[in-house]
Amino acid sequence: MSNQGQGCCEPLSEAPLAKEQAEEMASVFKALGDPVRLRLFSMIASGPSGEVCVCDLTPAFDLSQPTISHHLKLLKQAGLVDSERRGTWVYYRARPETANRMAALLASVNGDRAPA
Amino acid sequence: MSNQGQGCCEPLSEAPLAKEQAEEMASVFKALGDPVRLRLFSMIASGPSGEVCVCDLTPAFDLSQPTISHHLKLLKQAGLVDSERRGTWVYYRARPETANRMAALLASVNGDRAPA
DNA sequence: AGGTTGTATAGACGTTTATCTATGCCATGG
DNA sequence: CCATGGCATAGATAAACGTCTATACAACCT
After folding, report:
1. Which of A84, B33, B62, B73 is the most exposed, having the fewest neighbouring CB atoms within 10 Å of its CB?
2. With an 8 Å Cβ cutoff, is B41 touching chain A?
3. What mean pLDDT comes out for the span A70-87?
4. Is B111 on the interface with A (CB under 8 A)?
5. What's the mean pLDDT in A76-88?
6. pTM for the full model?
7. Given pLDDT bands bounded at 50, 70 and 90, which one contains residue A12?
8. A33/B19 CB distance under 8 A
9. Cβ separation of B26 and A48 shorter than 8 Å?
10. What is the 3-state secondary structure (H, E, C) of chain B?
């Protein structure tokens, strides 16, 4: 229930996005715009302990380890995940603020408007 | 079944997002992953009459008319907007079902897990 | 210290993408 | 009809992207 509206932006249905805001938000959508990254993010976000080891993520794909590492880096740069090294392994965890911010933006698109 | 102690590499039994679903949803995010398209979608979604004429969208950018037309096409293919020709002009309107579906996905990322 | 395993970085390469100019396709109006 | 204006399609091109192999870095374990 932590929907702390951090006053990020107007809902889409009220006012168009400014150029800067659009660029910032588009970069997050772009990070989610790849099937591999979306699945990675999904696996991380739904990790039962709130975090997932890279060693669990890598074998889940038919891709090389550096490729997975690269995608995780992009997710991190987009602000969607955070990483922490504990010993040998690195754990990734979702950053709900970012996801919820994008969710709020999309949820504001409503269809009931100007009934003829 | 937390493996925090040492055994890290227990394979995830099931991916939260299936491969096909991820590809389908990623294609929508990809459409929103461009600043121009996001602004276009934003302008369309916030149109006071629920729809916006292309003739109003095109001059709002420093881009050629075919480029705008191309971006609108991608938004349409992603299921984010619909278009209708009325006489000389073409009007675009948002499809809230798609936007709300993506919003629901992102909103399901919540941080309250593994209390303290 | 040396070997082993997990993760990240570097560089290369083929594909996709965003943009342009040129052109085609409606629909309206002389 | 033919001309005009709005929008879409086609083809070209440079930049960005996803992937790979090779290698470097980091932490563990004898």
Report:
1. B62
2. yes
3. 98
4. yes
5. 98
6. 0.88
7. low
8. no
9. no
10. CCCCCCCCCCCCCCCCCCHHHHHHHHHHHHHHCCHHHHHHHHHHHCCCCCCEEHHHHHHHCCCCHHHHHHHHHHHHHCCCEEEEEECCEEEEEECHHHHHHHHHHHHCCCCCCCCC
